[in-house]
Amino acid sequence: MAVAPGRSVRIILLMAGGPTLLDVWVASDRWRVAVPVRGRVERGSGDAPPDLPVSFLRRWFIRPFEGTLASASVEGEDRVLRVRDAEATLEIRLGRCDGGELTRASRRVRGRVVEQIEECLAHGRPKPGNWARYADARTGLVARVTFESVSTGAPEPSAFADPEAGGAAL
Predict the structure, then answer these.
(1) Which residues pair with 142 in a beta bridge?
(2) Where are the domains of the chain?
(3) Fewest 10 Å CB contacts: which of 33, 70, 118, 136?
């Protein structure tokens, strides 16, 4: 996974033995999702079909916490921010976890939680053993990721290139 905040994100998942299971590239205005083992490649601009993770990746990696701050408070040991973004309200709780700092965010649309994300990072920076969890109430998808390793260098610029646009990086 490689993230260029505010610009694009690229995720490549490999199967045992090395074949690519999933190749996802999302920018602020374009996207491409490939599932080579199924022969499926979809791309577009703007919104994607709901069964693809494009909106989620844009919201959490390209435009995190975008919107208007509605309130800020302290509840117990958590700092709580509520942000309005179009029809949604995002509640962000900042607290502590065994690995350092815990961020929990819930996105509500018309009063119903539609997605949640939690991440435990060592003092705001990922390190091996940290984790993240995502749940989508609409599809029932729940994913938990534990960081095995973290690169100390910047990703190659080609990681952020549109995979089908001749290698031009964003």
Answers:
(1) 135
(2) 1-46, 65-160
(3) 70
